[in-house]
Amino acid sequence: MTDIQEDLSQENMFLQTVANALGRKTVLAELPERQEAGPPAFWREQKFEEDQPLALFKSNLEALTGRVAIVRNGAEATNQIKLWLKVLNAKSAILWDHAKLREYIDSTRLGVKTAFWNRDTSRRELIELAEQADVGITWVNYAIGYTGTVALFNGENSGRSVSLLPPTHIAVMNRSDIVPTMSTVMRILLERRGQGALPSAIDFITGPSRTSDIEMDLSIGVHGPFRMWAVVIDD
Question: LUD domain location, by residue (predicted)?
Fold first, then answer.
């Protein structure tokens, strides 16, 4: 048997195994018709209890070595971040110049040198500030319970470098912005696209940076932060 014949034989065996698992006697000769696009109806229509999205988000992010603090207001959120900065022995932090972040977090009380990512500073200087900061602090547009993921909308006052370059990323969010599944966020994005209101870029971040592409050896913090912690304001 030639190498090509052996490859085809293995491919047929693999496809037959899949067909058997799906309850079919033989491999389909033509593509099956699919009536719907995106996630199947049973997934889109599943119901969640009111507290489930937060509980799922907390357990799933913590399973990835993240930390989740649930607070009642901006003053408690500021205190929590100040405590974490002290634990980290942080000297500096860079924050998005975001209206919600300024509303809830009193940067003058954090006890470290702070800088804001905004349009008034040159891009080169902002990247240098992010590179040198111990912590990057962002505002979360949506968080996804099922995966422990945060979705960040980027713009001129909310640069990606803030969540990418410092060794620790602290993400702040309202509880009401935690949704059950990724498909919920996708529906919202489709609505925003119809309104011409999509951001310039969207980051989906699930826990600290991790990779195993070199000999399957898991490494943390190679391509981004070592730590990804979250503060949830129970609004």
Answer: 55-233
Q: Cβ(185)–Cβ(206) under 8 Å?
A: no
Contacts 24+ apart (CB under 8 A), 185-189: 185/142, 185/144, 185/151, 186/38, 188/142
Bridge partners (DSSP) of residue 137 are 95, 170
Q: Choose among 230, 175, 184, 185: nearest CA to 207.
A: 230
Q: 51-95 pLDDT, tens per residue? A: 999 999 999 999 999 999 999 999 999 999 999 999 999 999 999
Q: How far apart are CA 170 and CA 156, in angstroms?
A: 19
Tell me which H or E stretch contains 100. helix 99-104
The answer to whether the CB of 140 falls within 8 A of the CB of 172 is yes
2 token code pair: 């030639």
In the block, tokens 């932090």 appear at: 93
Please give the Cα distance from 104 to 175 (Å, whole number).
13
CA angle 138, 141, 147 (to 5 degrees): 95
